[in-house]
């Protein structure tokens, strides 16, 4: 079978879904959209590479579909699999919890032995705290998107990020 890149996401009000669709468009025909509300996590381990999308809700919590599948998610075998993350949040409304859920997913990917790519610089954002930062605080652990405060930046950020990812995913 051809290389397939799963874009695995949950979305309550549609912003993460829209970002997932833009990422798929930028990646091209190898991208497969995988909404966990409809498909659960079945088949995730079979993708050649995985891109996980999560918005943060309720003061630093996982989006509800991720919450529902969390026990299954932590048990996935992603050893050696190329993976990347994108998160949606609101840096003004929820400055103390900006993109925390992306940080929670990142911890699980790290523990499962995935090869994690696609960190993203913190320049251009204003927030107070985030669980989605690299240890030195200079990067987010994945692509940081904020449709509430910086909607106009989303499409360009996705383009840049996906082009950086392509060679790392060996496309
Ligand atoms: C009730 C509520 C709580 C939220 N909590 C957070 C939060 O703790 N941290 C954050 O970065 N964004 C938070 N947000 C912003 C959402 O993550 C943001 O609107 C996101 O784009 C929603 O994605 P979705 O449409 O895919 O569900 C919150 C939004 C709402 C309405």
Automatic annotation (TrEMBL):
This is Flavodoxin. Its cofactor is FMN. The keyword Flavoprotein applies. Low-potential electron donor to a number of redox enzymes. Signal peptide: none annotated. Transmembrane segments: none annotated. Belongs to the flavodoxin family. Keywords: Electron transport, Flavoprotein, FMN, Transport.
